[in-house]
Fold this protein.
Amino acid sequence: MKALISALTLFAAGTTCIQAETPVYLDDSKPIEERVEDALSRMTLREKINIIHAQSKFSAPGVPRLGIPEMWCTDGPMGVRPEVLWDKWTQAKWTNDSCTAFPSLTALAATWDPDMALLYGKSIGEEARYRNKSVLLGPGINIYRTPLNGRNFEYMGEDPYLVSKMVVPYVKGVQSNGVAVCVKHYALNNNEINRHTSNPIVDDRTLYEIYLPGFRAAAQEGNAWSFMGGYNLFRGEHASYNPILMNDILKGEWGWDGAVISDWGAVHDTRTAVSGGLDMEFGSWTNGLSNGHSNAYDNYFLAEPYLKGIQDGTYSTVELDDKARRVLRLTFRTVMNRNRPFGAMGSDEHVAACRKIGEEGVVLLQNRNNLLPINLDNVKKIAVIGENAIKMMTVGGGSSSLKARYEVTPLDGLKARIGNKAQIVYARGYVGDPTGEYNGVTTGQDLNDPRSPEELRDEAVRVARDADIVLFFGGLNKAAHNDCEDSDRLSMELPYGQNELIEAIAAANPRTAVINISGTGVAMPWTDKVDAIMQAWYLGNETGNALASILTGDVNPSGKLPYTYYASLDQCGAHKMGEYPGHPGVDELGNEVMDMPYNEGIFVGYRFTDKNKLRPTFPFGHGISYTTFKYGKATIDRSEGTETDTFTVTVPVTNTGSRTGKETVQLYIADLKSSLPRPVKELKGFKKIELQPGQTADVSFTITADALKFFDPELHAWKCEPGTFEALIGSSATDIRTKASFKLR
Ligand code: BGC
């Protein structure tokens, strides 16, 4: 490769031969920093301005004169978004941009398996690479603060440790393709309602312990090449160019050298965009989703207004050079990396990855009377009820909406798997969202049904009564207010009268399994009326096949909840103690905002239910199997030590059932006495293991001082205090099976 470009040979007028040295910035044998400085030194002021803002909905210009290519971004985070027109949100109607739709990121988090995250990242990165994208706008890792957040399905749950462990391999997998991730939405973008004016009021300790660790892991351990700033405000400035979040923390404390990209339409001002650590401006004059002014690019805050400001001396070029350097670095790491692989789209491997991740992520929440898996020796008639059995879900939800190559619905997946071994009778049950369209992409399904709710319910009850088993597929569907960007849920209740319908079906036939398809927690007032409950997420192309494998027992479920399944909003700290969606206020700059005090502080998710001794419907980390696991007694290698010592705790786990299965063994640490209030316990380790029937394995966790620390806001540092700690080992946050104590001197 180097030989090809080591010299540019120019033939002039047929006779003279001019040899020119390869410019350093084009020479990929040179360190990136040298290439960056060389390119920068050759660029004009206008060229530097050009590369830091968009030229179309999803691209930024390179430097044509120097042969530095354009930079193309794409959503993200669960598949590669279909092409829109240059300057419109309208579909470009390309015929080569149908993608593999991967499971939602909540499903990925529910695998509790970093290898799945690596596989996911590698696969989606290959698709982005094949489509010649430099930046994949994902993953999303905002903490699940409330079940009402419309974008929970794009995120990885409530626990900062789990998020950190899952995001790093995702980042590495994507970037192994020479495609940058854009980790979003940094930070505190925990709701969609009022997303441009939300002003979370959060103390430092909560920020560092709960809302930042995932981002820090992505930046420092994952070496993420770009970050996306959120729409919300924080301490007087919008997140996308927030001096505290971007300059002090991300680029300062964490020493990160990547590029900050604004969310689409998140920039409102030149002065602060210049100084607040933003490197690339995208989507100004659009709502980020569907509307936009035409050809507004020269008016971008970091375009002509910035250029003029430099020319008239309002701004120096120091910030501009820093921004341009970061964009060049991103360019050399991606589109100008000649060694990057070519990628692939819709490969057999991607289909297999999609299915595998889905199968590993589905969570069996309840299984009374061993209703599942479906025993095809006895079950001759299966009632399949509910709109979500037939509805395609890869379209919808906002910017993560996809044009999938295909999508197997649950009903189709079951029919394909069961064949003529049993009769499947389908009843619609309810009409939810029959539209099947987002931003010009349609599923092609016509789900309109003229029947009344009573007619639909009566049919469903009749079909249920007559069946050996009932599989109800319901939940949400990525329509507005039902797992959708720009619109939070209006309550935790299932929509479209599903609760009443489930009760009626269960009364007719308690051998009912509810398969809830959603990306967030919903209220389940009927848990004691149905035998089985499964949390099934949005699983992408292979939805029906993955679910059929689990329902029939071809695959033993092994997912665990990445968030607490509250019985009601009262059990959630954000609603009980904190504010949501906040109250009108005025920020430091005099802007009208929605102040949202996070009074619950660090007590998010199980940290809140633990503290208040609440019993959620299903706890964080919960998920059962078709087999059972017995935990032996935990032992620890040392009972005392100092901050520089490590402690290794080991527990034998045995598969006591009759099927091979996987269990995620979870380690929580409890600090028995501390100078500041601490959660009852916090997740600090997990391992997913597979065991044959009767097999025992020792599972060990090494505990370092990091697992014992809390963030001391006075010191502005992490610290641990001497005293007694407990290593609690269990199968969920409320199912602790064994523990060992140790002392820190
Ligand atoms: C979303 C981002 C997305 C961007 C580009 C915004 O509305 O918040 O997550 O990447 O649009 O589509």
